[in-house]
Recover the amino acids of this structure.
């Protein structure tokens, strides 16, 4: 009933209306997920999150949901069936936990086989068969139907016949040189409960983001879960507890290498890289994972958690311990965050701090100029195919209506930090050949698109705290002559509009995958009144079969221009880079191909995917060379250079 009401309230037809008034079960989550699976098949030549994951999720959720539902509603269901669902959902979660906490490829594959066994279990088949009996005329839930090509690859299929990258590189003489600081991207750090309402108390110090605990917490009480994940819309900081409103909810980032080495629905975030670094001699004395609460705006990370201060001290310590300046390895939004950090440290600590402590910045898949997806999330609540979230995004989609989702994403200020940056100068028709957004068929300029979200005339109440960024910081395409309102940090998140510190001996690298279709243009329809539900929604009928988006070259999440423009051209300007720090672009053409490990979890050793690239063998080799003191040849295989020529970097680009 709660769920049905919630979706009625949000007016969202796509939710899991799995209970209707008659008390029959309608496991729409399964039906809802199936088209996504198809879509992943057609729009994404990669297998990573292809058929198997949605199917596993669907199945697990089918069981968990029905079990939870029966327990809470006391439906008059036959006991044997209820028992079977309980057994099924328990063994599912157990196997899933094992799978998700495997920290090497070998153990991943082992647990993946276990998962298959679990899925083939009679109990599960029985439970789902039983369900199909009850849910007559509904989609069949048979295991066999859901997993037509589920197969577990052999280890050699995934890794090739070769040995571990790090072991080979160690033999070739690569050793620890520069201490490595890893800065993870958005979404991918685990978040733990430190204080909360009664409904979540027994998850103390467990993750409500990033493991199956999260799924369990969600299944048990979705409203409670989302209340804890959502920050206060006015402050962008911790919300208060209900019903007394005088204690804050505290959700804090997990710490250490475990915080980001794997993520639900997306294996090997950093696991393989840590393993490779360890193989050439790295350990806690020479590397550090700088995890953070990815929901906060960059400035709030310092304000609430002193993140920059701590990061600075960690770097200083490792530099002292190793007698070498540090190599920063930043993935995805981590690159944007580190850029911001350099501004902060130069302004607050010492103008030479970067010069004295940083040897190189290795940006992996870092969208320094943003990407379209977060814009659409903030506008519509859409989060489907948020690559770093894996299939979990589909689960969020199905649990919460679009208004709830939009509130959740709007409360996460970080999302706005990776919206398309630089306005029409970068994202306009002239450079990309595509508009950023279309409304009912009309192509908008980038400025118009920004204004749909927040304009000088009107900034929505839940975005007012980041007004300066949305109206000024984000839109600039060159370093401004004076900062608005005297606030110097407004432009720090914008690589186009801020100046690199003077560090002539530092080196920068942008490594990223290309050759994967990536969203550039979203088609919007006007569907809501902006009170009951968002005014705009992605028009999934448009641009078939890509469910509302026009695609271009990139790494599945980020268009190639955002990954390479700053390095190739933006930092060639003395205005932004007075020390003329060289930056090397190196692209990795996606070669994962679907055939190699169909049914496996991730993209394999030569994937160019936004996240999977952290396990790309060639990239790992290059990275090990760099941190052990080597260099790297530039390589551009996309049409980045031609696109960069279309970018007119001399104009002010304000319109
Ligand atoms: C599944 O059902 C079959 C027959 O309906 C039964 O023999 C078997 O014991 C059941 N298995 C479990 C684990 O419940
Ligand atoms: C269920 O399907 C059967 C045969 O496919 C059909 O006769 C029946 O009317 C359906 N029931 C409902 C409620 O749709
Ligand atoms: C959010 O913070 C503001 C300002 O501190 C406060 O007035 C408001 O009650 C808070 N809202 C919630 C839902 O906690
Ligand atoms: C919290 O606020 C409520 C309402 O103002 C008050 O009744 C209660 O005593 C407060 N609790 C604490 C622990 O301060
Ligand atoms: C809008 O943009 C698309 C994609 O670039 C283009 O094909 C179409 O012709 C444009 N429409 C108009 C009316 O300019």
């Amino acid at each position: 009933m709660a769920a049905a009401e919630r979706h009625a309230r949000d007016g969202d037809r796509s939710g899991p209306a799995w209970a209707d008034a008659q008390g029959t079960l309608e496991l729409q989550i399964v039906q809802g997920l199936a088209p996504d699976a198809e879509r992943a098949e057609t729009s994404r030549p990669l297998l990573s999150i292809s058929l198997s994951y949605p199917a596993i999720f669907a199945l697990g959720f089918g069981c968990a949901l029905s079990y939870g539902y029966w327990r809470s509603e006391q439906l008059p269901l036959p006991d044997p069936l209820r028992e079977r669902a309980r057994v099924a959902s328990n063994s599912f979660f157990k196997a899933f936990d094992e799978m998700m906490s495997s920290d090497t490829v070998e153990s991943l594959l082992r647990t993946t086989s276990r998962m298959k066994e679990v899925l083939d279990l009679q109990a599960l088949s029985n439970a789902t068969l039983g369900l199909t009996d009850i849910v007559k005329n509904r989609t069949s839930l048979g295991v066999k139907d859901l997993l037509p090509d589920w197969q577990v690859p052999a280890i050699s299929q995934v890794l090739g016949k070769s040995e571990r990258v790090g072991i080979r590189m160690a033999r070739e003489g690569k050793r620890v040189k520069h201490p490595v600081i890893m800065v993870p991207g958005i979404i991918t750090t685990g978040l733990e409960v430190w204080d909360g309402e009664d409904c979540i108390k027994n998850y103390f110090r467990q993750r409500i983001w990033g493991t199956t605990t999260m799924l369990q917490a969600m299944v048990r009480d979705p409203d409670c879960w989302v209340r804890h994940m959502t920050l206060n819309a006015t402050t962008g900081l911790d919300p208060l507890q209900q019903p007394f409103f005088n204690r804050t909810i505290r959700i804090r980032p997990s710490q250490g290498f475990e915080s980001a080495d794997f993520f639900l629905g997306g294996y090997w975030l950093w696991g393989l890289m840590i393993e490779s670094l360890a193989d050439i001699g790295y350990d806690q004395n020479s590397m550090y994972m700088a995890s953070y609460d990815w929901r906060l705006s960059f400035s709030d990370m310092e304000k609430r958690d002193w993140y920059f201060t701590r990061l600075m001290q960690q770097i200083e310590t490792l530099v002292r311990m190793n007698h070498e300046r540090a190599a920063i390895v930043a993935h995805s939004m981590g690159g944007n965050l580190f850029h911001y950090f350099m501004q902060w440290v130069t302004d607050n600590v010492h103008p030479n701090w970067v010069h004295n402590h940083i040897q190189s910045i290795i940006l992996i898949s870092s969208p320094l100029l943003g990407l379209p997806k977060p814009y659409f999330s903030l506008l519509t609540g859409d989060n489907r195919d948020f690559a770093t979230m894996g299939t979990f995004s589909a689960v969020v989609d199905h649990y919460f209506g679009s208004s709830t989702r939009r509130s959740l994403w709007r409360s996460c200020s970080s999302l706005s930090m990776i919206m398309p940056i630089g306005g029409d100068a970068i994202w306009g028709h002239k450079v990309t050949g595509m508009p950023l957004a279309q409304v009912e068929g009309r192509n908008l300029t980038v400025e118009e698109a920004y204004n749909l979200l927040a304009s000088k005339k009107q900034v929505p109440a839940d975005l007012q705290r980041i007004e300066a960024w949305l109206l000024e910081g984000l839109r600039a395409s060159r370093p401004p002559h004076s900062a608005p309102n005297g606030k110097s940090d407004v432009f720090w998140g914008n690589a186009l509009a801020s100046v690199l510190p003077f560090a002539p001996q530092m080196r920068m690298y942008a490594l990223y995958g290309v050759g994967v279709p990536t969203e550039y243009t979203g088609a919007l329809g006007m569907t809501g009144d902006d009170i009951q539900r968002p005014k705009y929604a992605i028009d999934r009928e448009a641009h078939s079969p890509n469910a509302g988006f026009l695609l271009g070259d990139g790494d599945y999440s980020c268009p190639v221009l955002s990954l390479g423009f700053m390095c190739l051209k933006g930092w060639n300007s003395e205005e932004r880079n007075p020390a003329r720090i060289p930056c090397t672009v190196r692209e990795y053409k996606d070669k994962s191909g679907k055939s190699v490990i169909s049914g496996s979890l991730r993209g394999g050793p030569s994937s160019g995917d936004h996240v999977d690239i952290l396990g790309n063998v060639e990239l790992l080799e290059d990275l090990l060379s760099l941190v052990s003191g080597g260099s790297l040849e530039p390589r551009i295989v996309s049409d980045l250079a031609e696109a960069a020529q279309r970018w007119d970097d001399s104009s002010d680009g304000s319109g």
